[in-house]
């Protein structure tokens, strides 16, 4: 469910007319719905036992206003860099609700996280364990850790967002899990608190989750027998969202919560979940304007002013996003097939191929749906195109929460060396 719907023939974000908003903000722009963010968080959090930490995955949408919206509801943050940690803290999410994941934490990032007294480090290798021990010991701190184990479970998702098979860079191999915990127990400045697992993203079947969680439960019993404290199970994120409206929907969060609780409850551990896409994807759209309708030899192209630098998911993952007109078409409106493409000088700058849409013309506004996760956060200034700004809506209110960078600012971020000056 989302809070984007037609009213008076115009698509609205909650109570905000998107046609009027486009005139004020300019296109392209991202628009997020507070009501959708809040609803998705509450539905997910309420699906798990009391005391579960729901740490929003900042990599999905790192806008500080989005983080503050979720943090006020009690959300924590799952971060994978020092920059994401600073964003979460700036948004008011306290260190005791922050977990630090990722395979390449630097020593500077470790110190930053220790200073913030984060809830836990999800450690992904033995060398990282040793580095964290050295940093913690040098600062007189103790680092609470889980070790991310790789259960070698195929989640059946896109190869580029699969993280739980033996071929990926993530986690400690299953065969070395017990020896990694044995190493952790010997290191100074390290406190073992639990186990971490994450098998991928955009997963639409609960069975891979259940298989992975079952293996983790078995591992927890062995680790406890080895004398380790296993009080937390970080089960990761990854539950999918419906990018294609007429496809079978992914499992409901309540079904996911019931399954995870059933599989793990005998251990008596606190659960930690790291949803990102599930919370943010349907809470955001990308609004863009049609520049030209170009007739090719075999195709008709709708060229819009958003590009792959604004939303790279279709080019990177071959992902599908529904596209709708901002001005509601009549039920009997003529329809036509288009390749919806951007202005970036790449053949892969395409949002939809051979997509049947209500007939479009130059100047029409369209919305690319389900763009609130891995959209603006992955944008760039490729082709020297300033990334699209971000707008947050709450009822009738709206605010630009990341302004558009102008060309002068892009130029001002670069420097000419002395030997080229003049």
Provide the structure class: alpha/beta
Report Rg.
23 Å
Q: β content, as a range? A: 25-35%
Assigned CATH class of the largest domain: Alpha Beta
Question: What's this entry about, in short?
Answer:
This protein is of the alpha/beta class and 422 residues long. Helices cover 28% and strands 26% of the residues. The protein contains twelve helices and 21 strands.
Give a description of the structure.
- The chain is an alpha/beta fold and 422 residues long.
- It contains twelve helices and 21 strands.
- Helix 5 packs across helix 6 (126-139).
- The protein is globular and about 70 Å long.
- The protein starts with a strand and ends in a 10-residue tail after the last helix.
Task: Give keywords.
2 domains, about 425 residues, alpha/beta, TIM Barrel, Lyase, Ornithine Decarboxylase, Chain A, domain 1, 9-stranded mixed beta sheet
Secondary structure elements and pairings:
Layout lengths: L3 E4 L2 E4 L2 E2 H8 L3 E5 H12 L7 E5 L6 H8 L4 E4 L2 H9 L7 E3 L6 H9 L4 E4 L2 H14 L3 E8 L21 E2 L3 H10 L3 E7 L9 H20 L6 E5 L16 H12 L5 E4 L3 H4 L3 E12 L4 E5 L8 H5 L5 E3 L9 E7 L8 E9 L6 E4 L21 E5 L2 E6 L4 H6 L10
Parallel strand pairs: 4-20, 5-6, 5-13, 6-7, 7-8, 8-9, 9-10, 9-11, 11-12, 12-13, 15-17
Antiparallel strand pairs: 1-2, 2-3, 4-14, 14-15, 14-19, 16-19, 17-18, 20-21
Helix pairs in contact: 5-6, 8-9
